[in-house]
Design brief:
ChyE-like, GATASE, single chain, alpha/beta, Rossmann fold, GMP synthase, 11 strands, Class_I_gatase-like
Amino acid sequence: MFVLLQNDPNCPPGTCPEIIAAAGFAAQTVAAYAELPFPDLAQVTGIIVLGGDMGVYETERFPYLERVRAFLRLALEREVPLLGICLGGQLLAQVAGGCVASPSPHGEMGIRSVELNDSGAADPLFTGVPRSFLTFQLHNDSFTPPGDALLLASSAACPAQAFRLGPSAYGVQFHPEVNPVIVTCWGNLPDPPEDLLTGFLAQKAAFDAASRAILGNFVRLAAGLRRP
């Protein structure tokens, strides 16, 4: 079973469930913000930690973030494969000893190009993904990976777009899970930075090709490493 950890009601799992199902696995979405119990890690093949409008330091406003951090620490200790997306990647960086800038000078909005370095191009998470690929971004904060992490990708505005800890814990700053429904929702939030949906739809084919490959690669990687 794959766990989709949802930190914000406006940040649902998007394409993750269908990609997991296509690989022959079940997915369970757990609403962390609703204080729902987390599953037993012994039954978990992999975890995808989704994004959120809050920052990693806003624990007083969002106390459930401490439960999420504790869950991530335990998953790291037990080497359960992890993929942290945006806020999820920032939380992963934080619990592993990295830093999160909030707000950050490296914020990005909309479709943006990301570049793999040599390590990223060789990493199984990015199998079949070109060295330069299109992503969807919506972040005001950004992570600096822990010192023992392997940096995998960057962009013109943000020097750390993806990293790996150990064999199978990944953090990415971009959003591979989004679809038109999610982008429409985010574009309707107060003071959207730009016409997010128009830009997304114009590049959707290229975005989908890279994003679905990344999510599918994570599912296959996790399944190959761990069979509860």
